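Students often ask why inverse folding is considered easier than folding. One informal answer: many sequences map to the same fold, so there is more than one right answer. In these notes we will look at a single instance of the problem. The structure comes first.
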C-alpha cells in the first residue's frame, strides 16, 4: 500500500500516523508538504493527520483546505481514491466538502484530552473491514473542536444510507450522552462518503496500534485498509 501523509504547518500527528501505517503495511508512507500540487504516482491512500494546521486560525482546517495540495486530493477522491482524515484531518475534509457537516467547539468549551470508546456502526468498508458491526474499541481523543454538527437533512441521509462509521459509546457499547464528551450530534465520531472511500473521525486510532502504546485497539483500521487496497 502506497500511503501519502499530507503535512501542513501545525500538523503534529504525522509521525504517529506513519508508525501505524508502517506497522500495518510494512512500508513507510510518503510525507508530502502542503505546498506540493500533485500526489506521487501510484498513490493508494491519502491521509490527513491530526494537529492544528495553520494554528487553527479562522476555523479549524479552513486555511489548510485552501492549500495547493488539496485540489490534487479532491481530484484523487473524485477518481475513487481512498482518503482518511483524523481529527484536524476530519475538519479539513468537511472544510473541502469531501465530507458533510462541520466540527464545532466542544460543548464543554474545553479542550478534551482523554481516552474514549467508539462503537463500529458500519462494518465491511475499507476502513472497518476487520471489525464487526457493534464492536467497541478505545482510542485517545485530543481536540477542542470535535463537536460534529450537521443539519436534519444531512443527518437523515447519513443514518438512512448507513454512512455513520463510528459513534461515541460506553465501554460496553451503549450510546449515551455521558459517552459523548464533545457533544457531537447523534454521538457521531466518524462518517463515510457515499462511495465508502473517504472516512473522517475525531479520535486517534493511530495512537493505539502497539502493545507499547497501551493497546492495539486502533490497529484494525489500518490492517483493514491494507487488505482492502490489496484487493481493490
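Output (designed amino acids):
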Amino acid at each position: 500500500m502506497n500511503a501519502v501523509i499530507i503535512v501542513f504547518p501545525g500538523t503534529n500527528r504525522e509521525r504517529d500516523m506513519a508508525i501505524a501505517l508502517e506497522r500495518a503495511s510494512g512500508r513507510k508512507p510518503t510525507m508530502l508538504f502542503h505546498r506540493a500540487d500533485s500526489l506521487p504516482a501510484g498513490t493508494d491512500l491519502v491521509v490527513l493527520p491530526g494537529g492544528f494546521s495553520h494554528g487553527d486560525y479562522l476555523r479549524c482546517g479552513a486555511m489548510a483546505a485552501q492549500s495547493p495540495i488539496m485540489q490534487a486530493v479532491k481530484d484523487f477522491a473524485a477518481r475513487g481514491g481512498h482518503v482518511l482524515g483524523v481529527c484536524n484531518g476530519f475538519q479539513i475534509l468537511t472544510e473541502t466538502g469531501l465530507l458533510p457537516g462541520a466540527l464545532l467547539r466542544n460543548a464543554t468549551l474545553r479542550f478534551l484530552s482523554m481516552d474514549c470508546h467508539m462503537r463500529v456502526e458500519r462494518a465491511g468498508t475499507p476502513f472497518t473491514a476487520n471489525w464487526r458491526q457493534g464492536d467497541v474499541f478505545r482510542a485517545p481523543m485530543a481536540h477542542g473542536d470535535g463537536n460534529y454538527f450537521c443539519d436534519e437533512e444531512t443527518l437523515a441521509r447519513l443514518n438512512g444510507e448507513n454512512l455513520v462509521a463510528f459513534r461515541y459509546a460506553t465501554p460496553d457499547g451503549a450510546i449515551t450522552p455521558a459517552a459523548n464528551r464533545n457533544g457531537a450530534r447523534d454521538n457521531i465520531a466518524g462518517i463515510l462518503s457515499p462511495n465508502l472511500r473517504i472516512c473522517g473521525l475525531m479520535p486517534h486510532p493511530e495512537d493505539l496500534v502497539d502493545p507499547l502504546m497501551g493497546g492495539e485497539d486502533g490497529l484494525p483500521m489500518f490492517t483493514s485498509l491494507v487488505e482492502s487496497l490489496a484487493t481493490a
